[in-house]
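Sequence, please.
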């Protein structure tokens, strides 16, 4: 998914929300999607395997809080 484009489904909305929320954090060095997406095998039953690389000394709690908040926003907005 290209962040900044209009999300077409719930999967894209979730990925966009999480990626956009983590992008400004200086301790987040990289992010990628693994799992079925890495093998171009995503279907309607696929989960989302997002991975993020943080600086070694960075606490993970702030990143977790940002992700929870982003997911909460998606959850409150309802299903498509």
């Amino acid at each position: 998914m290209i962040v900044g484009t209009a999300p077409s489904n719930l999967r894209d909305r979730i990925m966009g929300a999480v990626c956009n929320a983590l992008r400004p954090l200086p301790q987040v060095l990289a992010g990628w999607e693994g799992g079925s997406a890495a093998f171009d095998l995503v279907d309607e039953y696929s989960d989302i395997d997002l991975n993020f690389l943080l600086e070694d000394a960075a606490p993970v709690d702030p990143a977790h809080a940002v992700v929870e908040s982003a997911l909460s926003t998606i959850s409150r907005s309802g299903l498509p």
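The beta strands are 28-33, 50-54.
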